[in-house]
Amino acid sequence: MNRRHLLALAVASAVTSFALPAVAEEPVKVAFVYVGPVGDAGWTYAHDQARVALEKAMGGKVKTSYVESVPEGADAERVIRKLALNGNNVIFTTSFGYMNPTAKVAKAFPHIVFEHATGFTVDKNVGTYETRLYEGAYLNGVLAGKMSKSNLLGVVASFPIPEVIRNIDAFTLGAQSVNPAIKTKVIWVNTWYDPAKERQAAETLISEGVDVINQNTDSPATLQVAQEKGVYAFGWNSDMAKFAPKAQLTAATNDWSGYYIETVKAVMAGTWKSTQIHGGLKEGMIKMAALNPVIPADVVKIYEEKKKALTAGTLVPFQGPIKDQSGAIKVAAGTELPLPKLLSMDFYVQGVEGVIPK
Hints:
alpha/beta, Rossmann fold, 2 domains, 6-stranded parallel sheet, 6-stranded mixed sheet, disordered N terminus
């Protein structure tokens, strides 16, 4: 992956051709704000592994730091402002709920580069970036649809924001592409990282007949419950196989390292510009973990064919016809869900049970 490929994915240049001056002094100070602990084994762990890769790639030219387990709210603004006052040249804020605090602090520090993960608010010195993790969710669904005996899948979900809703929908659509009888149950835990809540949600889903579980939370608790109960599940954001080797069928993982390295290089060179980035399998920002040997060869073949098509762009998860729960057409046959609607997704596809919390 390189920045040229990433920039080709920008929905739009955030503002103009404005670029900040090159950073003359070394080491360049780069800070990260994390919503969970670096040891969560999921979202934050993946970001921190990329931070380590950045340091390794840049050597003494870069000095990184991070603040972990920062709540999404007033605390986030305080932490981000302190990092700016401490002389950091680049600040990566890595959770959706940091969007408004990032934008607010950035206005007070116009010569610092701020990069916000998964949001949509941009400015001259604020860019956004995220992965098309729904591609990985779709592939998880393909395996789930073929491996399920009950035709009932489950999702342990964090918060009802568009990012999570589209992952639930993509998981369901992937499963239905190989098994039209699939239904999906969702339990919302209203947290990114709380192993106890995640465990309880997984146990509840299994008690209701679910035999394959996806998650949009950060700990391996869901996988561990799946292994204890003899069902299947998936890692999320990073490879969690070591926690439940029998249960994990694969994992949809984020690889932020290339993006962090190229972004910091651009800041150092004075070529950084505010953009909105969406990278997936094609760009190497999404990677799938090794498949569990328990998966039959014919299922592996289907999975690999769909993975290849997704990477090539010949398969699009949200291509019509797609109906919502009421049966109304949301995406017409032969068309794709437009990016703005994809990024603001607020409906369940047909086959997902329950309602989205307000």
